Amino acid sequence: MANIISICGSLRKGSYNRMVMTALPKLAPPGMSIEEAPSFADFPLYNADIQNSTGFPAAVTALAEAIRAADGVIFCTPEYNFSIPGGLKNALDWVSRLQNQPFAGKPIAIQSASPGPLGGARVQYDLRKTMVFLDALTLNKPEIFIGNCATKLDEKTGELKDDTTRNFIKQQLEAFAGFIERHGRTS
Q1: d(Cα 17, Cα 180) in Å, to the nearest integer?
Q2: Distance from C-alpha of 40 to C-alpha of 38, rounded to nearest angstrom
Q3: Distance CA 7, CA 35 (A)
Q4: C-alpha–C-alpha distance, residues 115 and 138, integer Å
């Protein structure tokens, strides 16, 4: 069984990316479980003075431990100002400073949804660059860019109502399972 955690880059409860992330367990292939990672909503802004005076906040350690224990991580994130949302970037900055950096050698998949036509393409390239620095193993293809996502998600129920999008996500999850198998499980 491949145990995967998912991280939503948006803190908004009604986020399109959260809706996509919530749909993932039902779309996963046999032998893959997907659970949401501990939240980064309460992380303070990264400040070395905090780290040096009181250590790492418990929420940071909880997220890092969940990453270490997982066989892979799926990011579902919007694009903010052509890049990574501030809260997610802050979480990555905190986690990256821990000993035994949890993303090193960890298989990663990325998905993004946006009301615009590009589907969050720019955030994926910046997140990939960050993952390179953290020595993560990022799945290259298939890529998931859900453009015009408001037409593909039911805002009231959170359901993914577009069959084509569901099929693309299933294909990525199947590819991710194979990617994890080829690169060895880390937990």
Answers
A1: 23
A2: 7
A3: 9
A4: 25
